Amino acid sequence: MEDLFSYRLTDFLMFSEQTYWRLFSRYNQSIFPLPLLSLAFGLYCLYAFVAFKKIVIKPLLMLIALAWLWIGFRFFGQLYSEINVYAGYLAVLFWLQGLLLLSRSFKTVTYHAWFRHPFERYIGWVLWIMALLMLPLFEILLGKSMNATSSFALTPDSIAIVSIALVLILNIKPWWVLAAALWLMISTLTYWAMGSLLSLPPFITLLIYGWAHWLQKRNKTGDNPSI
Amino acid sequence: MPSGYSISRRQLLKQGLLLGSIAAVPALGSQISKRPIITKPIPTSGQPLPIIGMGTWITFNVGQDIEARLKRTQVLKTFLEQGGQLVDSSPMYGSAEEVLGFCRQQLGQRADDLFSATKVWTSSTSEGRSQIDNSHRLWGLDKFNLFQVHNLVNWRDHLDTLFNMKAEGRLQYVGITTSHGRRHVDLEQIMKTQPIDFVQLTYHIDNRAVEKRLLPLAQDRGIAIIANRPFSGGDLFDDYEHQPLPEWSHEIDCHNWAQFFLKFVVSHPAITCAIPATSRVDHMLENMGALKGPLPEADMRKEMLKYVSRL
To answer: Residue B47's pLDDT is what?
Structure first.
C-alpha cells in the first residue's frame, strides 16, 4: 500500500505531449475535410441557438451520438491504442456514451430547443463557443500546430464539451453525458501530468458539469419533457 | 548547461521533442568519438558492456507515426555510433518495442552490436509466454540478450520461464526490475535466492537508497546492475540545470549536467550500466559523452555529492 502512494501522476504517462499532439495531427489529416464541415455545422447551430431558430433536435442528438461512436472507433480504437495500452477501455467509454445519447435521441419528440432558464442557456452557448473556437485557439497559443488542433465535435475534448453544452442548452439531465464528464476528468489529468495548460478547458467544463448537476438538484427539475 | 536551450531538458525528456538538427550529428559526434569507451564486465559471464545504455520509456512510444519513427532511428543510430550497446524496453511502454524493431530494420547491420534487453509484464504465466514471443517478433530478433521480469509482476512463474529459456540456449541473461525505489525488500530476497544475472533499479545522485543494502548485495552475489531513471525522470535538470557545473568537473570529463549525473551513477562499483532515455540526437550525444574519459573515484564522488547538496 505504501508503494501505491509512492506513484505520481506522471508515472502513469506513457507518451510525450509532442507524441499526443502528433496523434491529433494524423487524425485530422485522415478525416479531412470533415473538420471543416463540422466547424460550419457548429457555427450554424450556434446561430440557430442564439437566433432562436428551429433546431431539429433529434438528428442533432443523433449526430452527436454518432460522433462519439466514431471517435471511439477511429481515435481511440485505431490511433490512441498505438501509444496507450489502455486506449481500448476509452474506446468502450466513448461507444457507451454514443449509445446513451442515441437512446436519448429516440426519446426526443420536438423540433424546438426549449429553455428553462436563460442563464444555463448562456453557459451552454459559452461552452459551445469554447469547443468551436476558444479551444483550438488556446491550443495554437500553447504551441500546437494548426492541423493538430481539436476539430469541432470530432475530437475527444471537443465532443465532450459540446455534449455538456447541449445538456445546458436543451435542459437534458446531466447524467445522460456522464461518460463525457469521465473523459474530461481523464483528459484533465493527462494534460496535468504533462504539465500542460491544456488541462484547463476540460477542467473548467468539468466544473460546469458539476454545477449543472447541482442546479438540477436544487431546482428539482427533470428532463425537459418536450426534448 | 548547454547554451542556446530555450526549453529545459526536463521538458524535453518528458515531451520527447526532437528539435535538434540531425545534420549536426557528425560534426558534434566526431569531437568525442575518438576516445576509448568505458565498459564494465557482466559478473556472471565477464562479457564487457558499455556503461551507458539507452532507455525507451516514453521516448520511443510514438506509434505508427513514420516521421517520429525516423527521428528515433537517428537517436538509436547516434547511440550505436558512439559505442552504446544496451537498449532496454518493455511491453508496458506502448509501441516502444515495435518502434525499436522498425529502427533496427532501418539501420540494418549497423544495429547488429545492439545488446537487446526487454521485459515480461503480465500477471498471467501463459500470457507471459506469448508476450515473450511477441517481443521477439516486434524487435525482429531470434534471441534476446536479456529478459527481465518487469516490476516483480508474477516473478516466480516468469523467472521459471526465463531460466528454462536460458537453459535451452534461447536467452543469454535473466533479470528482474523495479523502479522508483519500490519493493526493495522483495527484491533483496530475490537477489539472495534466485540465480539471476541482472537487476534493474532506480539510482541517481538524489536517490541513493540502494547503496545501503542492494548494491553491496549485488556485488556479493555477482549480479549486474542497470540503473534506470538516472536523471530522476528529468527532475535533476529542473533542480540543478540553472546552476554552474563545478570547475573541477573537467577533471572527470564532464562538460554538462547530463554527464555529471551519469558519471556519478556509473562510477559506483556495483553499477554496470545506466539507461537514460532521450528523443533528441544532441541529448544522446551529451549522454554518450559519459561513456568516455575518467570515471570519478570515491573521493571525487564525495565531492560531487557535497557540491550538489550545497546547491
So the answer is: 97
In sequence order, what DSSP letters do the residues of B37-74 get, joined into one string? BPEEE-TTT--EEESB-B--TTTT--TT-HHHHHHHHH
Q: pLDDT tens digit string along B8-21?
A: 455 545 444 433 33
Which secondary-structure segment (H or E) carries A163?
helix A156-170
Contact B300, B308 (CB under 8 A): no
pLDDT at A188: 97
Nearest to A215 by CA among A179, A174, A181: A174
Q: How many domains does chain B have?
A: 1
Omega within 30 of 0 (cis) for the link into A33: yes
Beta bridge partners of B149: B120, B176
Q: With respect to residue B3, please indicate whether it lies within any of the assigned structural domains.
A: no
Biggest CA-to-CA distance, chain B: 55
Whether residue B28 lies inside any domain: the answer is no
Q: Is B186 on the interface with A (CB under 8 A)?
A: no
Whether chain B has a CB inside 8 Å of the CB on A1: the answer is no
> Does A13 lie at the interface with B, CB-CB under 8 angstroms?
yes
Q: In the structure grid, which three cell numbers stand for residue A198, read together?
A: 491544456
B177 backbone dihedrals φ, ψ, rounded to 5°: -130, 155
pLDDT at A58: 83
In a domain, B2, yes or no: no
Residue at B6 is within a domain: no
Dihedral in degrees, nearest 10, Cα atoms A3, A9, A11, A12: 110
* CATH number of the structural domain spanning residue B78: 3.20.20.100
